[in-house]
Design brief:
Number of helices of chain B: 0
Structural class of chain A: mainly beta
Oligomer: heterodimer
Number of strands of chain B: 11
Strand content of chain A: over 45%
Radius of gyration of chain B: 13 Å
Order of helices and strands of chain B: EEEEEEEEEEE
Order of helices and strands of chain A: EEEEEEEEEEE
Shape of chain A: globular
Largest sheet of chain A: 6 strands, mixed
């Protein structure tokens, strides 16, 4: 399977703490994306990082990409209870519009 | 941002019946839409790529006669689960991507329960 692996599978933290999720993938990519999914809902795009970028920020989100290790991390700073959701990384598939999603991290932020 | 509408959000049906799920891009045209299936606490598995005006491309292991996809216009794709059985119960999600963009915009999903 081409599916990426994410760790941890589940993460529980207190409000105000930082949350870090990691994603490893198997093939060469043009870009890597992170999506968020609230329970029982569709996915929402958070951030895209291209293969020639090493780090990207968006608000409280910080994404890093290491193509030599085929890995990425998503850091959420100063977490809030509303950040409780599942987070998925997704990589593009060469010469197609398809995305391959990672296994996901379930984040629980306690108030 | 781009909006994708998926309908219905929840459907219960009897075994043997067919169910149609609609996916619409509301403010952009999508030549390509995607259909995913998601089991509880698991990731999304791509079922098929829906191409406007042509046949869908199914992923390995997905029965094309079971999951009929029609993409008749640039804003609408439908997934019909034919002769549904309890093992087809799942969360189905569609997505669409505006031209020349790598980002996919997702519908809210459809929870199918087959009794």
């Amino acid at each position: 399977s081409q599916q990426g692996e994410e760790d941890p599978q589940a993460l529980s933290i207190q409000e105000g703490e930082n949350a870090t999720m990691n994603c490893s993938y198997k093939t060469s990519i043009n870009n890597l994306q992170w999506y968020r999914q609230n329970s029982g809902r569709g996915l929402v795009h958070l951030i895209l990082i291209r293969s020639n970028e090493r780090e990207k920020h968006s608000g409280r989100l910080r994404v890093t990409l290491d193509t030599s290790k085929k890995s990425s991390s998503l850091l959420i700073t100063a977490s809030r209870a509303a950040d409780t959701a599942s987070y998925f990384c997704a990589t593009d598939v060469y010469n197609t519009d398809k995305l391959i999603f990672g296994t996901g991290t379930r984040l629980q932020v306690f108030p | 941002g781009a909006v994708v509408s998926q309908h219905p959000s929840w459907v219960i049906c009897k075994s043997g019946t067919s169910v149609k799920i609609e996916c619409r891009s509301l403010d952009f045209q999508a030549t390509t839409m995607f259909w995913y299936r998601q089991f509880p606490k698991q990731s999304l598995m791509l079922m098929a790529t829906s191409n406007e005006g042509s046949k869908a491309t199914y992923e390995q292991g997905v029965e094309k006669d079971k999951f009929l996809i029609n993409h008749a216009s640039l804003t609408l794709s439908t997934l019909t689960v034919t002769s549904a059985h309890p093992e087809d119960s799942s969360f189905y999600i569609c997505s669409a991507s505006p031209a020349a963009k790598n980002i996919q915009y997702f519908g809210a999903g459809t929870r199918l329960s087959v009794l």
